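Quick one:
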Amino acid sequence: MLRSFLLITTTLILSSPIKSAEPSAFNSLVAVVNGQVITESEVRQVTSTTREIIIRSQPAGPERDKALKSLRKNALESLIERELILSEFVKMGAEIKGTVIDQDIEKIIQREPFNGDRNKFLADLRKTGMTMKRFRDMRQKIIAVEMMRSRQAKGISVVTPQKLTETYQKHKGKFREETFARIRTIMIPKATQDPTIKLDDQRKLITDVRERIAKGEDFAELAKEYSKDSVAESGGDRGIIGEKSIKLRNDLKIAAFALGSGKVSGVLEDNYAFYLLKAEDKKLGKNKSLNDPIVRDETNKLALLELRKSAHERWITKLKKTASIRQFDSQGNLITKSQKASSE
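Output:
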């Protein structure tokens, strides 16, 4: 979790200007880890893009609030973890040379959206209100954390036969030949040419259709009556397709193949429409053997990832036991406190 949050931070900072309408909240203290401060601005920088996606893609309500709360919690945990690791980095007496940071920033400039244009990079940096010094400090932290993570993972390179078998059994579903099913869809657009029909009307319509299906009405007949996609007249029938097919949009395809044969999805939505999916005559692909060289190699990689993740979690738990961690609410009140264990 930490790695993905740290790597995404640079992109977020350079692509999402931070609003400062609430400067006191923006710069407020949210945690102190071994004397190092984490502010609200850091949490917002990490979560800004994903937060916007959640807000745009989910209707206001308990589910969206839950997703936003989870996003913020995970971001703060990642930032706390970052400071724990940086404390260990400092204890080791390690340092990141300036030339390493220079090379790191140059790599960022060479990638999209800058494509080698340093002036564009600097202009975007200024738009965010971030100085080059602050950006270098941020990159220095990211490099240091990655070095420490790599150091921890380096010693885990061998998977035992037992662990290999356990991992294969756990992920057996990944190693199958292609699964096929007949997929049906119902699509209700969010916007229509009739100005009297509102978004809530369309949401109620798709919900009512789902309830009628649950009570036993035929999916195909309801698709003919209400669906507005290209296969409505054929009862929403998109034919027999495979998991790897490009005949159905990927997110809908994933949702469809997650269904059991004869089952109907809940209401799905994107920015433009609501959807119901049904999988029929689903035929699971045959499982591939662990003796298959490709399967064995992929299983070995998964097992290594699991072993390294477990080792990393044990390491972080150990660091937390000897750390001073304080967290604060939006009013600056102390809500959790973890003191360093006293030496005996």
